[in-house]
Amino acid sequence: MAGSQVYEPITDRRATIRRADGASVGELVGDLGRDMSLLIHQEIALARMEVKEEAAKAGKGAGMLGGAGYAGHLLVLFGSLAGVFGLAHVMDLAWAALVVTGVWAVIAGVLFLNGRRKLRAVHPKPQQTVETLKEDAQWARHPRS
Predict the structure, then answer these.
(1) By the 8 A CB rule, do 74 and 104 touch?
(2) What is the pTM of this model?
(3) Helix crossing, 92-120 with 25-88: angle to 10°?
(4) Do both 24 and 69 map to the same domain?
(5) Cα–Cα distance measured from residue 28 to residue 23, given in angstroms and rounded to the nearest whole number
(6) Averaged over 74-96, what is the pLDDT?
C-alpha cells in the first residue's frame, strides 16, 4: 500500500487511529456530519426561496383572474342596463351603456388572458433544488469523479 494512507501504530487500547495528515477517523466522521448538515440546510433554504417565488407568481395570476371576474361582473351589469335602456327607450343613454359594456368586455378579456398566462408560468416544484439534489446524490455515489 505504498503512497496510500499511513496509520500510526496503536500502542494501547485507548489510542485512536489517525491518518497521515493527523485527522482521526472520529474527526473525519464529525466533519462529514457537519458538512452533510450544512448541505441539507442550504438545500432547504433554496427550496424555501424557490417556493416563495412561485407563490408570488401564483398570487399575481390569481389577482388578475380576480380582476377579470370583477370586470366580468361589471360586464353583465352594464350589459343588462344597456339591454333594459335599449329596449325601453332606444335612446342615446342606452348606446352609452353599450359603449361602457364594450370597454368592460375588453378589460375583462385582457385581464383573463394575462392572468391565465401568469398561472401557466408557475412551477410549484422547486426545479433548482431538484437539480442540486440530483447532483449531490451523483456526487455521493461517485465522490472522486
Answers:
(1) yes
(2) 0.41
(3) 160
(4) yes
(5) 7
(6) 73
